[in-house]
From TrEMBL:
Keyword Membrane: no
SUPFAM superfamilies in the cross-refs: Actin-like ATPase domain
UniProt keyword annotations, A-Z: ATP-binding, Kinase, Nucleotide-binding, Transferase
UniProt EC number: 2.7.1.2
GO BP annotation list: glycolytic process
UniProt family annotation: Belongs to the ROK (NagC/XylR) family.
Pfam families: ROK
Identification of the protein by name: Glucokinase
GO molecular function, one term: ATP binding
Cellular component terms per the entry's GO annotation: cytoplasm
């Protein structure tokens, strides 16, 4: 059995990442295909199945080589019944029976979970989790996602919405509007768009000189990367913007830490590429808001797997959730 490959699929709104992964979590072969969301996403699953066949063929292997498919999907999932409750980015109807559709098209046993949960599982298995059994993963991308792992397994909650860390309220008053319908969510300030929002607000409220102000005037737009780069160079306004983001993120993860006392809280996604300039102030606020035992026993670190976390987590599902 252990010479079989596990298929990990990370289904995204614009691209789908797919990988053949060994039983030990090493990527054997990986690729990506565009996600066709036209006609309410009716081609998505068929495209994935065809692509798996095509790549098997190219590698001179047959389906007998595959143990099954584990997919991370962008929305809350009923893992037991294989249903995705909602996937607004894909155009699918509510309660799509994703697992069944995938099994019919691929002819393989399949298991599904939420994409952020898969990224968390990937980091636990082969990344910054370093084999720890209790970790919280926070993905700071276009939005903010999360996954909570206790005793080596994902926490799903009552309706698949456990780990929605991006929607922890960090600004109970005067917060920004979030896509989820609430205001003041972590995602509105700690995502790539969130940090730009904080920067635009700071630039408007002060007349302080900053490379961000001149950058904005010449280019008309600001990116999260420019803000972190400026902070790294010591630009005072940029440092204060990153400090504000770190305050909200540190507050949210300290409270998660107090609830769960994980071995590790792993920060991933595009924003986490900022590295030390972000990690250092987040650590400072985490330590000041966390219960002392939590502050001294829960470590904060940057994710290691980058874009591969989702497919490796999908492979983990095949290995651990399929008989
Ligand atoms: Zn929200």
């Amino acid at each position: 059995m252990s010479d079989k490959w596990l298929v990990g699929v990370d289904l995204g709104g614009t691209t789908t990442k797919i990988a053949f992964v060994s039983f030990y979590g090493e990527i054997v072969h990986k690729w990506e295909i565009p996600t066709d969301t036209s006609e309410n996403g009716k081609n998505i699953i068929v495209d994935i199945a065809k692509s798996i066949d095509h790549h098997l063929d190219e590698l001179g292997e047959t389906k007998a080589k595959l143990k099954g498919v584990g997919m991370g999907a962008p929305g809350p999932v009923d893992m037991d019944n294989g249903i995705i409750y909602e996937a607004v980015n894909l155009g699918w109807e509510k309660n799509t029976p994703l697992k069944d559709l995938l099994e019919v098209e691929t002819g393989l046993p399949c298991v599904i979970d939420n994409d952020a949960n898969c990224a968390a599982l990937g980091e636990m298995w082969k990344g910054a989790g370093n084999g720890a059994k209790d970790i919280v993963a926070v993905t700071l991308g276009t939005g903010v996602g999360g996954g909570v792992i206790t005793n080596g397994d994902i926490v799903h909650g009552s309706k698949g919405a456990a780990g929605e860390i991006g929607h922890i309220t960090v600004m109970p008053e005067g917060g920004f509007q979030c896509n989820c319908g609430k205001t003041g969510c972590l995602e509105t300030v700690a995502s790539a768009t969130g940090v730009v929002r904080l920067a635009l607000q700071a630039l408007e409220e002060s007349s302080e000189d900053s490379v961000l102000r001149s950058g904005l005037q010449t280019e008309g737009v600001l990116s999260a990367k420019e803000i972190f780069d400026a902070a790294r160079e010591g630009d005072t306004l940029a440092v204060s913007i990153v400090d504000k983001l770190a305050f909200y993120l540190g507050l949210a993860i300290a409270n998660l830490g107090n609830a769960l006392n994980p071995d590790r809280i792993v920060l991933g996604g595009g924003v986490s590429k900022a590295g030390e300039v972000l990690l250092s102030p987040v650590d400072k606020y985490f330590n000041s808001f966390a219960f002392p035992t939590v502050a001294s026993s829960t470590a904060i670190s940057i994710a290691k797997l980058g874009n591969d976390a989702g497919v490796i987590g999908g492979a983990w599902l095949v290995k651990n959730k399929l008989d």
